[in-house]
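Target chain:
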Amino acid sequence: MRALALRMFAVAALATVWVLLWGRFTIPNILTGIVVATVILVLLPMPPVPVQGRVHLVPLVKLLGMFTWYLLESSIQLMWLAVRPGPPPLTGVLRVPLTIKSDLVLVLAANITTLIPGSMVLEIDQVRRILYCHVIDVGSARVVERFFQQVAQVERLLIDAFERDDEWLPAGVGA
């Protein structure tokens, strides 16, 4: 049942992208999007991603709220860095170790980190659970520490929402 729900979600997501790319919300575009999405999923199947545990709504809502706040706050900071007088900010690549266990949640952490303006994940070290992030404005220890605190907060909320220790088992165990 869960596999069918995930496939239906994938078809709906791909069909939505199709309709958005065409720019018109019409019945033929929706039907064509569903057909194209189904063909893509049948002809180009993705390997199964092990999904385990449960989604916890309260930490997920906190994560969405925190992400929205970081998005607004960092957009304003980035805008200020672009228009302020003086030299451009110092940029750098920071190494961020994580304790996330699941590959899927690791990718979510990388995506959320990249979506926060002023940072971009350049590489994910899957084995050692490290993100390498390009960060705009690493000119002071306070700003660098703030970035690490933001990523740590994202990590904590992702773990609370998706991979609590009492619900998580390594892949292949208990299956």
In short: The helical segments are 2-22, 27-43, 57-83, 103-115, 141-162. The chain has a mean pLDDT of 88. Residues 57-83 form the longest helix (27 residues).
